Amino acid sequence: MLIALASVLSSGWHGAFRNVLADLRFAWDQRQASGEIVVVAIDASSIEKIGIWPWPRRLHAELLRKLENAGVRDIAFDVDFSAPSDPASDQEFVEALRGAGGSVVLPSFKQPGAVSGNPNALHINRPLKQFSDKELSDIARKIQRLELTPAGTEGFKKAEVTAGGIATSELSSRTMEAKRVPGLYFIGEVVDVTGQLGGYNFQWAWASGYAAGQHA
Ligand SMILES: Cc1cc2nc3c(=O)[nH]c(=O)nc-3n(C[C@H](O)[C@H](O)[C@H](O)COP(=O)(O)OP(=O)(O)OC[C@H]3O[C@@H](n4cnc5c(N)ncnc54)[C@H](O)[C@@H]3O)c2cc1C
Asked: What is the pTM of this model?
């Protein structure tokens, strides 16, 4: 029995097996469709109107409460909840789901998507799991300790700033004039100053140019 179970699990047949069982179960316990399930979907004009994605979940929370107040017992969202909106809003939806008296179904989407070079791989989007405070601090700790080691550079062709040039010790920091050659000024990237990405190199080029321009 155990060997049979292990071979079913390892062969991937368990998915097909589960489907057969589900079919049998529904065939055995048949009932008329109540017609009372409300399916919530989003149309293109609403997406345009709200203007951001994902929508703040408080909108879904509000809708859920309205449907509940209108007496709807079964609600299915045809909405991709796999990405977070904003924390307060996400929490509001969690509370609305918790408070819902009837049943609420959130979907998972099975989509084709190349994963690790496998073009036939399937990607499953599930509603975002809400993490506990402990899980969140564990994740934060792991991210804070994450160390990345660059594997290399893309070479001079892609370089955005050069390092190495005229030594700053040879220049007046006020006027950018060369100490040894009066009347000769150096500014910007030709000087031995390298900033991180983020505008520091532009700032240095403009500021040193301005300083030299005041005296040259
Ligand atoms: C792809 C790329 C992206 C970058 N992105 C950023 C960024 O996001 N933020 C940031 O802060 N920095 C960035 N930098 C760096 C920044 O552009 C430079 O540090 C800054 O422009 C240097 O200014 P500069 O005036 O010293 O030199 P340059 O801007 O290089 O000016 C030198 C000028 O001298 C001219 N010249 C050269 N030889 C002669 C000659 N013989 N006669 C006459 N003229 C000559 C050149 O044509 C050029 O116009 C980037 C650089 C690159 C290449």
From this structure: 0.48
